[in-house]
Amino acid sequence: MTDNTKIKLELNFEDDLYMFSDTIRTQTEKIQKYGHGAEYDAYEKLTGKDFFGNDNPFNIEIGIGNGEFTSEYAKKYPDSNYLGFEVMKKIFHKAIIKGRQVESGNLRLIHFDATFFVSIMEDECVDNFYVNFPDPWPKKRHKKRRILKTQFIEFLVKKLRPGGTLCIATDQIDYAEEIVENLKPVASLKSVYNTTYIKELDDYIPTKYYRKFVPELGVHFFRLKKVTE
Q1: Residue 135, phi-psi category: left (phi > 0), alpha (psi -120 to 50), beta (remainder)
Q2: Which CATH class is domain 18-28+39-226?
Q3: pLDDT at residue 177 above 50?
Q4: Mean pLDDT, the chain, as a whole number?
Q5: 83's torsion region: left (phi>0), alpha (psi -120 to 50) or beta?
Q6: Spatial contact of 62 and 130, defined as CB atoms under 8 Å apart
Q7: How far apart are the first and last CA of the chain?
Q8: Which one of 19, 73, 179, 222 is at 20 to 30 Å from 169 when CA atoms are compared?
Q9: How confident is the model at residue 159 (pLDDT cuts 50, 70, 90)?
Q10: Active-site annotation holder among 41, 123, 135, 174
Q11: Could you tell me the residue ranges of all domains in the chain?
Q12: Which residues have C-beta within 8 Å of that of residue 65, sequence separation ≥ 6?
């Protein structure tokens, strides 16, 4: 960008529920191509109000899969807003089907990389982030692709309100232990438990993935609160 004009991203949700990547790419591809690393600065900052039209608590799930978790939470907490991201188109269609069951108007689903949208959000505008069963990339040569590195965690913390939480669930013990190590430099996140993670969570919604992994491997739950000194 050669001037100070910011681009306002148009958020056109079909059926007030979902948006596919092609709708977004038509608005972003030129800037992403010529932005030279500064493309996020080209956009007006977003908050939950831009997605939902109100200032209710704003929650984001990164990697919604079939949408079961975020749809159930939206039904359970109609006075809070839930925004979910998924990059796999086939499974995103399943999430839309789940999302249609939510009648309270507090759910939005986007078929796009969450990193882009979170990057153009205002700092400290998100109440809770959820990352459920992120791809473990089990092969040794692929582990560098795991999303929950220290840098990414710090990126999410910047967008969390003080007192907001980052909630993580994984069935992979080695990934859980890696997350423990990656959290050590992040002084502004503190576990709400006596340990960094626990293996039972009474209020967790038993999704398909949860039901699949609990009997075999167990699930490791992190609930980390943003604290201020």
Answers
A1: beta
A2: alpha beta
A3: yes
A4: 91
A5: beta
A6: yes
A7: 37
A8: 19
A9: very high
A10: 135
A11: 18-28+39-226
A12: 86, 91, 95, 132, 133, 207, 208, 209
